Amino acid sequence: MFEIFGVPSYALFGQLLLGLINGSFYALLSLGLAVIFGMLNIINFTHGAQYMMGAFVAYMLLQYLGINYWAALVIVPILVGATGIIIERLFLARLQKLDPLYGLLLTFGLALIIEGVFRNYYGSSGKPYDIPDALQGGHNLGFMFLPNYRAWVIVFSLAVCLVTWFAIERTRLGSYLRAATENPTLVRAFGIDVPRLVTLTYGFGVGLAALAGVMAAPIYNVSPQMGSDIIIVVFAVVVIGGMGSIMGAILTGFTLGIVEGFTKVFFPEASNTVIFVIMVIVLLIRPAGLFGRGI
Length: 295
Hints:
71% helix, 11 helices
């Protein structure tokens, strides 16, 4: 065992791994928020509750129907994304021409309702969700022990983020989405159903949150508070990266997860606030965020 800057290597690399795991969830959740904000111009406070729903739906599928983790990775984002589509059609579509503050207040209220419903039925204590057999165990790298499941979370979340970025920035469908954001009237003139595009985009963003919830279930306890515990940090990540910036959400999510992990090694007292300190500094220097469009 060796030391780096006076810190044992296992502690340093252990926190790096923890930072990458947290960064994976920050990136996936902030990516969903960026997609929704870029298309609907709505700050979706329900995102944390939808992340929690993803974990709980995976838990319920396993407990009551015997549907395992691998199937849940596909089924849960579709189911929870469908609830997002219903929310968008019933509520958010009616607020498009109003001040964005109304959408923020509506989604905040929905988040409280969803969390309250799950707390009423499942209580405040967490529910366990086992790691799938194929990802049990880990590898001893000499300087640290790398659990297989945590390595899978990091690699898979990065792959999902990059595929999403490619779909939005480098495909025809993505060009339609960006054009509909800039000039929906012109896009509608080309025969594209903009309201349906908006609805599906919101459902996709919600599905990303649900996917993150499924991946988080074996690592953290599945509890009604898990969404509210992470969503404030995720909003800070989105602000730092730039509201609506896809690549900003991905890069900032992973980077700030690593920064948070290293802070726990060298200055543990600041680990819970370092992201917000960075947010304040970035807003003072660049109000639109690191990757956002200038104001």
